[in-house]
Fold this sequence. Notes:
By secondary structure, the protein is mostly helical. It has two domains: 7-185 and 300-329, HUPs (Rossmann fold, 3-Layer(aba) Sandwich); 205-294, Tyrosyl-Transfer RNA Synthetase, CATH 1.10.240.10. Helices cover 53% and strands 7% of the residues. It has helices at residues 20-33, 45-48, 55-71, 89-98, 103-107, 110-118, 125-139, 153-169, 215-223, 241-254, 258-264, 272-297, 300-329; strands at 7-12, 38-43, 80-83, 145-147, 178-180. The chain starts with 6 loop residues before the first strand and ends in a 5-residue tail after the last helix. The protein binds tryptophan.
Amino acid sequence: MEQQRKTILSGMQPSGELSIGHIAGALRNWVTLQHDFDSLFCVVDQHAITVQQEPAKLRKWTLDLVAMYQAAGVDPSKSVVFVQSHVPEHVQLAWILTCLTGMGECSRMTQFKDKSERHSDNINVGLFTYPILMAADILIYNADLVPVGEDQKQHLELARNLAERFNHRYSPTFTVPEPYIPKVGGRIMSLQEPTKKMSKSDPNMKASIFLTDSDDDIRNKIRRAVTDSGSDIRYDEQVRPGISNLMSLYHIATDKTFADIEAEFAGSTGYAPFKEAVGEAVAAYVRPIRERFLELRADEDSLRAIAKAGAEQARHRAWKVLRKVYKKTGFIEL
Length: 334
Ligand code: TRP
């Protein structure tokens, strides 16, 4: 008998221009995982509005992500690709989970604390309950594994607690999800301040490599990347964050291990030859993804059709779970 495949779910926020961080940190893994798992990949537009968004940009970035998932290799005939707001069952479940969450659980979230400092003019309740909606995204599909960055671990812990709480209070219903955090290359840092994560919202354009950067843009940004004092190529995130970050990028672009990279540049004088090699490799890595992206992005009708088909599959599954949850909660059937 064929063993039932485990389910994975992940999502990205349409809240900025696409960067290599999206690909390196997440999409690369999704593309591999989709072969072995029942996979759902969501564009979380409802999470994006926890900070103020311009509607036209939100629309653009949502379609950008639908195109980029595919450009990076997510196959919509294998994986369910959809937009969060097309599947209202997420927020419906989120309400029930909200009523099972303590204020303290949300106020302890480090991302809430960071974001409310950075957006002190707009500390809305959505920013506060954000992790509950994320829990709903995951639990409504009974996902077993959730590929995320290290910064989402605390949110995942809440999702696990809420699954257990509901199961305990009513009866076994939800799978308790596990985080799946990539080991190497998961975190790409700013090219200008390598102790900070590369962020799509960084106002310094030289800090990030965008998916739409030309080959020359990429080479130049890497040439000008801030590096550490010293001159040999050695991986050490603490002492040499700049060089280590470029090594991560080189690893992603070429699949070479850190040991291979150190050996390749052993004895070279200064960082220049290394930076040239990284620039060339990253440009070559991004080029086919950019080309596929631009082609897919030009056909909005197809992108919308893919999102629609994905939403239909997702809703079918989400409704089955929500219906059970409603019953157990004590809501009478319509
Ligand atoms: N909070 C995640 C992030 O910013 C995005 C996200 C929302 C997500 N819902 C999710 C990730 C569900 C994984 C699963 O990266």
